[in-house]
Amino acid sequence: MYFLIDDFASELDQYKRALLAERLQQSGSQVFVTAITQRQLKEMQVENKKMFSVHNGIINALN
């Protein structure tokens, strides 16, 4: 199963974001998440995460 979550932090408070991140990790699914800043993704404590930045159409690996 795959999930695509756009703008992870926009509509959820901190508690709901943490709960969603926990549930997604427990699901064992592949998850693609977008956010405006890296800080917004810090709540998603995932072991095997890969982060990328897209700026002016150019994709760069962050880790």
Explain the overall architecture.
It is a single chain. 22% of the residues lie in helices and 25% in strands. By secondary structure, the protein is an alpha+beta fold. The protein has one domain. The protein is globular and about 30 Å long.
Order of secondary-structure elements? EHEEE
Quaternary structure annotation: single chain
Round the Cα radius of gyration to an integer and report it.
12 Å
Based on Cα principal axes, name the global outline: globular
Unreliable segments (pLDDT under 50, ≥5 consecutive)? none
Task: Classify the helix fraction into a percent range.
Answer: 10-25%
The number of helical elements comes to 1
- Count the beta strands: 4
Structural class by SSE content: alpha+beta
Q: What is the overall pLDDT average?
A: 86
Distance between the termini: 24 Å
Number of domains: 1
Content of β-strand: 25-35%
Provide a quick synopsis of the model.
It comes from Haemophilus influenzae R3021. This protein has 63 residues and is α+β, with helices and mostly antiparallel strands.
Record the SSE blueprint.
Blueprint: E1 2-5, H1 14-27, E2 30-33, E3 52-55, E4 58-61
Features:
about 60 residues; alpha+beta; two-stranded parallel sheet; two-stranded antiparallel sheet; about 20% helix; about 25% strand; P-loop_NTPase
